[in-house]
Amino acid sequence: MHHPEALEPIVTFLRGVGLSIEYGEGAHDGFLPGVNIHAGVIHIDPDTLSGSGDLLHEAGHIIVVPRRYWPRLGRDLQADIESLVAEEPANPELGRAAQMGEFMSQAWSYAVVRHLGLPMDCVFFPESYNRDQYDGTHPMLAWLERGTHYGPMALAQAGMTGFSGVYGLLHDNGLPTFPQMTRWTLD
To answer: Among residues of the chain, what percentage have pLDDT more than 90?
Structure first.
């Protein structure tokens, strides 16, 4: 596992923001190795987890959905969120999570790692985000650090942080700029 020393601080943080984390067999057959979601509960198996940051990434998909829907989220988060949108097509929070959830999760994970003082490559490691051929900085990390990543903008639209980067030149919601977060969950 990439950065096993980061796992416990990440688990402690996630539990602190209200996510349920369990260790064991429930982690098998998830979207990513060693992490799976059952009824909004994240299950992990440290022995098969590729990187401690994968846990953050999956949590990031959950936190951009209103808490009342968490129990309806499972292994295929995107399909579950799209089902919620079909039930409530006028809900802007669900629509944002369906359209921008991947970017929001990446940006949220970045903000958590910065907040916890962990190394960035616990989230942005080789093979993460289907990127295994690159020189220097992981492409997603570079995009975030350049201020051109869509995730911080979507988090700011949700009122979780302030606009930053190129989007900060166009918008101001009065909140501290990303990666500072004014709240870690949507509600």
So the answer is: 76
Give the CA-trace dihedral at 49, 53, 56, 60, to 10 degrees: -110
Which whole-number Å values give the CA distances from 138 to 21, 32, 52, 91, 121, in the listed order?
Answer: 28, 19, 16, 34, 8
In whole angstroms, give the CA distance from residue 120 to residue 115: 11
Residue-wise pLDDT tens digits, 44-69: 999 999 889 999 999 999 999 999 99
Structure tokens at 81: 């969120």
The total number of residues shown for the chain amounts to 187
Q: What is the DSSP letter of 41?
A: E
SS3 of residue 21 by DSSP: strand
CA dihedral 101, 163, 167, 113 (to 10 degrees): -60
Reported as a single tens digit per residue, the pLDDT across 137-149 is 767 777 788 888 8
In order of 2, 24, 80, the CA distances from 160 in angstroms are 28, 32, 22
